[in-house]
Every structure is written in structure tokens, then in C-alpha cells.
Amino acid sequence: MGIEKSMMTVDEFIDRFCAVVRERGLRLTNQRIAVVRHFFQQGHHVTVDSLYQLVLKEHPQIGYATVYRTLKLLVECSLAQTHQFDKNRVCFELYEEHEHHDHIICVECSKIIEFEHAEIERLQDQVAEDHGFLLTTHRMELYGICPDCQKKA
Amino acid sequence: MGIEKSMMTVDEFIDRFCAVVRERGLRLTNQRIAVVRHFFQQGHHVTVDSLYQLVLKEHPQIGYATVYRTLKLLVECSLAQTHQFDKNRVCFELYEEHEHHDHIICVECSKIIEFEHAEIERLQDQVAEDHGFLLTTHRMELYGICPDCQKKA
DNA sequence: CTGATTGCAAACCGTTTGCATATCA
DNA sequence: TGATATGCAAACGGTTTGCAATCAG
């Protein structure tokens, strides 16, 4: 029922990042690598703030702006993608080509579950086609109460 | 393929608003009525700013805050609902019980098409159930290029 | 060396809030 | 008359930006 998670290691991820950085003639800094590493290690659905707090322990001088800029860079390089589950805060997750999934979010504890559903995707494509749209992306989020929170209540 | 739009008239809508306002012991002001009327007349998917600009012509003294507060009131009364198609700006549309629909948004011209799809809804319920979630709401948005914009390109 | 990057603080921008004044019931 | 609503301006909070100092290549 779940989704196969990435088999990539931190090092592989950082290598990919370094490759893109080199390719673009950008520079590799300790701050960037720290942000990228923590981003990957935290796993999915990271908040800018949570990442900032983490990196801070290693780089007491790092600024919010650097974290923002590095995450933005990751997105530009197709190594990360953003989600807007709640309107106040963006969250970032790993981007992996050919691995589209959607989310179920618990409205009580904010837990996020990922799922794939080929049939829904197919029907969405169909709907777009029926309206003559050339589909570029979509967003589907289910909000509800997770099993744990149901027990608590 | 489209959706049957509301048959409600402006006056009926305003009447409903007045009823709720009375019911809650709130007060009916010219500003509120103006906002509510323009909201309804604009049809779906209204931005706070666009509404503010409209009402301004009638009430040169009205403030943004009043428009915001009135729209918030409409949402509380289940006469309106919000959507967050683009992360910077909320937009409001009419809320009608038992009339759930989703949206296809043109990424070029921002045109919004509504659609209903019982089978997708059913599958979404299924997915939630499979993960033990008690579904409360969902959001599904398709983004693409509309027929008009395809022709232009 | 020198152009990219950083950290800081200030700007941004949509939204919300505090408060004195005006208004509805 | 008395509580509610308004308009204004200031606050908020996440995000972005300008800039001088720093650093990677």
C-alpha cells in the first residue's frame, strides 16, 4: 500500500548536487552542502524553518536566506519539489523523475502519507483531454484523520 | 461536460446572507451588502483585490479590511469557500452544499474550468479508506494549457 | 584575482489586528 | 443607547532582495 522509497544514499544525492553545481559553473560551499545533506537526511516534507534549525547546529552563522536560496536551487535542478499543504508555509521534498505520487494529510497531526494511483491519474488525463487541455501538472491532496488520531479521539 | 451553474439570483443570495446575519445577531451594513452583491455578481473565483476594486466604485471609503472580513464571514456562513490556486493569493467562490467540483486551471491565462467526476471521487474515498483515514476534504487541481492558449502558441 | 555566495537587515506582500470613530438595531 | 462594524494604519509572518564582506575556483 505504501510507496517504494528512494534507494539513493546521502552521498549519491550530494554527488548529484555537486554535478549540477559544477555543470552550471556555480560554487560548492560548506553551507550548501550542509543544507543539501540535511534536506536529504530529513527525508520527505521538510519545512524551511526545520531545515534552518538543523543546519544551524553545524553552521551557527548560517542565515535563513541561504537555506531558502539553496532549496530554491535544488528545485531548479529538479532535485527537490515544493508542496503547499498549508497556505502559510511551503514544504520541500525530494524530486524523483518518473515517481509521481500524491498525498494524504492528517488534519490533526499533520502526518503525511504518500500514495500512487494509476487509475486516478488516467482519469485525470481523460478529464483534461475532454476539456481540450494540455495537462502539465496536477495536485491532489486528501485531508482526513489518520488511524492514530482516530484512536485518540 | 460542464457543470450546471447555480440558478440563484443576486437577491436570493443576499436574502440568504441577511438571514444568517440576523440569525447571528450581526448587523447589516451597506458595505457588507455591497461586498456580498459584487461577490455574487462576479461569479466564481474572485480575488479579494478584484472585489475591493469593484466595491470601491460604490463605496470610495471602504477599506480592504472590510472586504476581507466580509468574505471571511461568508465563508463562516457556508456561503463561500476559498481556494489557493496560486500560493500568493486566496480566491473565493460560491459555496453550494452537495455541489462539490474540482478545477482545471490554465497556466497561461489563468482561466478556470470546473468539473465533477464521480468515479475519481469514489477512488479517492477508496484510497483514504485503504489507509485507514477518515476523509474530511480533498483538493484536486489540474494545471495545463487551455484550447485558446494552445491555438495562440 | 574576481565573480559567486553569504549573512544581515530591510523590503515585500497578502492578510490580520488594534483602536478610535461611526453606525445599526 | 450600547454593542457591533468600519476605516485606517500598523503589525504579522513567510519569503525575497540589496549590499558589503567573504570565499571558492
Please tell me about this protein's structure.
Two copies of one chain form a homodimer. Chain A is an alpha+beta fold and 153 residues long. Chain A contains six helices and six strands. Chain A has a three-stranded antiparallel sheet with strand order 1-3-2. In chain A, strand 4 and strand 5 form a beta hairpin. Chains A and B meet through helix 5 and strand 6 of A and helix 5 and strand 6 of B. Strand 6 of chain A pairs antiparallel with strand 6 (134-145) of chain B. The first copy, chain A, binds a DNA duplex (25 and 25 nucleotides) through helix 4.
Morphology call of chain A: globular
Q: What is the count of β-strands of chain A?
A: 6
The helical percent of chain A reads 40-55%
Rg of chain A, Cα atoms, Å: 18 Å
Encode the helix/strand succession of chain A as letters: HHEHHEEEEHEH
Output the CATH class name of the largest domain in chain A: Mainly Alpha
Named at the architecture level, the CATH assignment of the largest domain in chain A is: Orthogonal Bundle
